[in-house]
Specification:
With 336 residues, the protein is α+β, with helices and mostly antiparallel strands. The chain contains 8 helices and 20 strands.
Length: 336
């Protein structure tokens, strides 16, 4: 365990917000949580953070930022058709996808190039290009903070839904994820429901293979999303809103071309990017904050933006969409 006082966080969050925390606590092993529990750390302000790719700091954090930096990927079970990997929470998500590609394991390829660490993936139920991490999560292991006891959640117990899970709701600030077990297919199995991926493969005359699907998604992502080394962002800032069928039908009478997709519980998913773009806000900028010109879902820090500036900006975007469409678009990111 390492404790650093008044630690800068600018390089630990992908928005690049220049703030500090009272102390940064980095853990090498989950068992070290017991020491923090005994010292009463969890009775004071704290924030559990992975790679900082889904975090928006509104200002300096007067508390403890805690990171579990364990690493490792191992095979724990294997059959002729499937394999189960156990991945440490502190392992970069990209490393998991690359491991799968290297070893011809199917199921994670659509989630390539998503920033962040593995422990955060089930919390947010990360997703992209027609896939979600819930599709491959077998089990989530964690430790209850106030008791320092280890617990396990099988897939059905995680209550996964669109960009949500039991870890984001009931166990927020109560549980630290320590490991995630993933079940991958050893036989070809592709998710090509996202039209742009199919079109890319067809237009480039490419065979449907694991490597080609991954490269197609990488290319599409690169054409739409900013390089985090150049521009601060949290990727897609807003969730695609879910509305009732009745609300959608009313909206469709006014905007017949609004993109829509079936979602859970008989809800309809709308495209937040489309709604923002229809408000004329794609590429819009106020000072150091703006909408990325190539993707309306992405809010970027052009340099030197504060968390409060970004919060003020995104609320204006919300208000514009609500005023035009009567639909609330909610942020994916965690405000701290």
């Amino acid at each position: 365990m390492k404790i650093e006082l008044n630690h800068p966080l600018k390089n630990l969050n992908t928005f690049g917000i220049d703030v500090c925390c009272r102390q940064l606590i980095t853990l090498d092993m989950p068992q070290e949580v017991a020491q923090l529990q005994q010292e009463g750390i969890f009775n004071t302000p704290f924030y559990l953070m992975g790679g900082g790719s889904n975090t928006l700091f509104s200002g300096d954090f007067n508390g403890s930022v805690i990171q579990l930096q364990n690493r490792g990927i191992e095979v724990v079970h294997e059959t002729a058709d499937k394999i189960i990997l156990k991945v440490a929470a502190g392992e970069a998500w990209q490393s998991v996808v690359e491991y799968c590609l290297k070893n011809d394991l199917y199921g994670a390829e659509n989630l390539i190039d998503i920033p962040g660490w593995t422990g955060s993936a089930p919390v947010q139920n990360i997703g992209a290009y027609g896939a979600e991490v819930k599709d491959i999560v077998y089990q989530v292991n964690g430790i209850m903070l106030h008791k320092a006891t280890f617990v396990q959640f099988h897939n059905t117990e995680c209550q996964f839904s669109y960009r949500n899970s039991i870890f984001k709701k009931d166990y927020r600030n109560r549980l630290l994820i320590t490991e995630v077990l993933f079940q991958l297919s050893k036989k070809p199995r592709f998710n090509l429901e996202y039209e742009a991926v199919k079109n890319y493969l067809i237009s480039n005359n490419q065979e449907i293979t694991l490597q080609n699907v991954a490269k197609a998604i990488q290319s599409i992502r690169a054409s739409k999303l900013p390089d985090l080394q150049m521009l601060g962002s949290a990727g897609s800032f807003f969730k695609n809103p879910l509305v009732s069928r009745a609300q959608f039908e009313l909206l469709a009478t006014r905007f017949p071309n609004v993109p829509h997709y079936p979602a859970e519980a008989d809800l309809i998913k709308l495209s937040a990017g489309f709604l923002i773009e229809q408000c004329g806000l794609k590429g819009y900028r106020e000072g150091n904050v703006g909408i990325y010109p190539k993707q309306a879902l992405v809010i970027i820090n052009w340099g030197g933006a504060t968390g409060k500036e970004i919060i003020t900006f995104y609320r204006k975007i919300q208000a514009a969409v609500m005023n035009k469409f009567g639909v609330l678009i909610e942020p994916e990111v965690n405000e701290v």
